[in-house]
Amino acid sequence: MRKVHLISITDPLMLDLAMAIRDKGYEVSVSGNRLSAELMSSLEERGIVCYGNGWFPERLTKETYSMVLGSQVSPDNPELQRGKELGLMISSVPEFIYQCTKSKTRVVIAGSHGRRAILSLMVAALSRQKMAFDYATTSRVAQLEKTLQFSFESRIALIEGDEHITSVLDKRSQLEFYRPHIAVMTNLVWDSSHDHATPEAYMKTYRYFSTSIEREGKLIYYGGDPVIGELVEDIRADITAIPFDKHPVTEHDGQICLQTRYGDYPVYIPDDDFLVNVNAARLACRQLGVKDTDFYQAIADFTLSLKQ
């Protein structure tokens, strides 16, 4: 059984990552400081090895398959130093996610707004078709029990692309690691709270993201954003660019419906951006083999259930 060690279990996503790796059949150990007795007890119950509060470099051996670093791990961390001495494969969280989904069709949803909504719509459509998928999200999606899940069986991976920097050690954006086959890009809006100091630095991240799309890949983008429009003009010739905008609607007896060539599908519209997000999700699902008619029925059932 392969062994994976995670440093700094209290950093974002690390606990869910540990459980996802364990569920895939790996032997998992973790470490961290300021660990509560409750957390350590919970780890033990879940079959995840934790040697105690603090760092235990002496516990690491060459038998460890790889080491994953939390976002706040510092260069002088003793376990990181020991891992380097042993020549272990060391990766950040996004690097490890890529390695876990390397053999799958990766769909990465990126942009300033709407990522969780698009993911939710895609999850509803794929689940209705009983299409298995792995996923990695940075936010909670109501239909998903966890933020990460990996398996050997599924051929699809849904990834929420975050433009923030990877870690204290690696100042690259998380988006630089995923190499999507299908990229979905919503609107791009820089603000001063981002990890990018300037709008130019922010756009550089997304330009790199668009160039990282796998050969013959797809870029599904919001056509109403002129900033994305400029970016799309420079994409590689082998990438198919597919714009989306608001989905048309009609009304029957007070019920709003998605207006389609296949008929009208009643929906509940939870927010102003829904009609944009639903088109993004539809086009992404179409690339995965979901027929539009099946997608619309799934979204009708899903959204109307939210209204109850």
Percent helix? 25-40%
Oligomer: single chain
- Unreliable segments of 5+ consecutive residues: none
What about the largest sheet?
A: 7 strands, mixed
Task: Give the tally of β-strands.
Answer: 15
Mean pLDDT: 93
- The succession of helices and strands, N to C, reads EHEHEEHEHEHEEEEHEHEEEEHH
Q: What is the CA-based Rg, rounded? A: 21 Å
Query: Biggest sheet: strands side by side, in what order?
Result: 8-7-9-6-10-11-12
Tally of helical segments? 9
Specify the overall morphology.
globular
Distance between the termini: 46 Å
Strand content: 15-25%
Structural class: alpha/beta
Fold and architecture overview:
The structure is a single chain. By secondary structure, the protein is α/β, with parallel strands linked by helices. It has helices spanning 14-23, 37-45, 78-86, 93-100, 115-128, 199-211, 226-232, 274-287, 292-307; strands at residues 3-7, 27-31, 49-50, 64-69, 89-92, 105-110, 134-136, 148-149, 156-160, 182-185, 218-222, 240-244, 249-252, 255-260, 263-266. The strands form three sheets. A seven-stranded mixed beta sheet has the order 8-7-9-6-10-11-12, with helices on both faces. It has a five-stranded parallel beta sheet with strand order 3-2-1-4-5, sandwiched between helices. The radius of gyration is 21 Å and the shape is globular. The chain starts with a strand and ends with a helix. The model has no long low-confidence stretch (mean pLDDT 93).
